[in-house]
């Protein structure tokens, strides 16, 4: 009898200890999750700057962050060097070349869903899951399911509508596009918190999708700023090893001088100066997709070339178009057919650290982003403004929320108008009293609020609540 009582007591104690151990492990797990956030992009992490900035701001505010997505290009060093941020690379599945498009797309969605779900199973549970949309399928459904299972909250950051981007390729009435719109609208309502990039999008989400979203304007990161002249020279020399447009046309007469197309460095004094008669540097960045018509820029450059040949007081022009994307080969072929004398075009893919330096060294930025929905703003312009770089941007519905015509840049409708703006801005270049310097002065004088400062003011209070 005594032995039975002792055995029962021992069993009860063991069960209690196991229960306490389980509760302790769940408490430890909950404590870890309370400061852990997942940031998800079903796209290239290196080409998702806004989500990189979310991850950095979360880390700066004490959260541990898992950054999930396709690791096709390198994110910025500041993110890679942050001990609070871990990257989980997903495998990008190419569309199958067999079967009808609906089947191909369906298989891709199912495989991505399983891959994303498995990545969540292996990681610590997250108190918040930040998801970029687009692409939102199957990400929104999977992240919502994960939040239901592990108790987190889903935050969808609306950059645009995925169905509208698909519509550029397939047409707005294509069955796939209509299906994508239905899924996006349904799944978008499952989120706990919604962020978006413009007031116009916030209003559209509320009126047409019954989704309440908080507008969080893109702001430049701290590393987007004007580039000192010595760093400009180092960048030009580095790029000149690959791209002839950055090289000096002749060797220096003085062996103590080092030249690029734009700058010269005196090894004796260490002084870097702009070269007399240097070309103007125009920069545009792109994902080479259907929502950017680069034929507008090419036609404007042809008109600029003719003006120069006809004797207008205009500089030679180096046009740098950076980025990767599906239409790059198409436009590269068009560029290769041009026979310019005074315009040089190159299309490099820059390292993450070199891109801000290039923007901070340029004389003018050009943006050809024409939103598929008319509701998002080009972040490339935000980055250019962070570098105090004036911009010419093609007009669309809500561009006025970012580009103020005749204040921080110019807005154009077609190649004729862009060519006229290039002529006006580069007349008598470099002109200290010209429009370019006036726009740059306005950008310097306007307080450039940086991303993290804005994020702490707008997003962090929503998470605390």
Q: What are the defining features of this structure?
A:
465 residues; alpha/beta; Rossmann fold; seven-stranded parallel beta sheet; six-stranded parallel beta sheet; 17 helices; 16 strands; globular
Which helices and strands occur, and which strands form pairs?
Elements: H1 2-34, E1 36-44, H2 49-60, E2 64-70, H3 77-80, E3 85-90, H4 101-122, E4 128-133, H5 139-150, E5 153-158, H6 162-170, H7 175-188, E6 193-196, H8 199-209, E7 214-215, H9 229-240, E8 257-259, E9 263-266, E10 272-274, E11 280-285, H10 295-309, E12 317-322, H11 328-336, E13 343-346, H12 354-359, E14 364-367, H13 379-386, E15 391-394, E16 409-412, H14 415-426, H15 435-445, H16 451-458, H17 460-464
Parallel strand pairs: 1-2, 1-4, 2-3, 4-5, 5-6, 6-7, 11-12, 11-14, 12-13, 14-15, 15-16
Antiparallel strand pairs: 8-9, 9-10
Helix pairs in contact: 2-16, 4-5, 6-7, 10-14
Task: Describe this entry's structure for a reader.
The chain is 44% helix and 17% strand. The protein is of the alpha/beta class and 465 residues long. It has two domains: 36-44 and 60-72 and 80-93 and 105-219 and 454-464, Rossmann fold; 229-448, Rossmann fold. The strands form three sheets. The protein has a seven-stranded parallel β-sheet, sandwiched between helices. Helix 5 links the parallel strand 4 (128-133) and strand 5. Helix 6 packs antiparallel against helix 7 (175-188) and helix 10 crosses helix 14 (415-426). The protein starts with a helix and ends with a helix. Mean pLDDT is 87; it is low at 21-28.
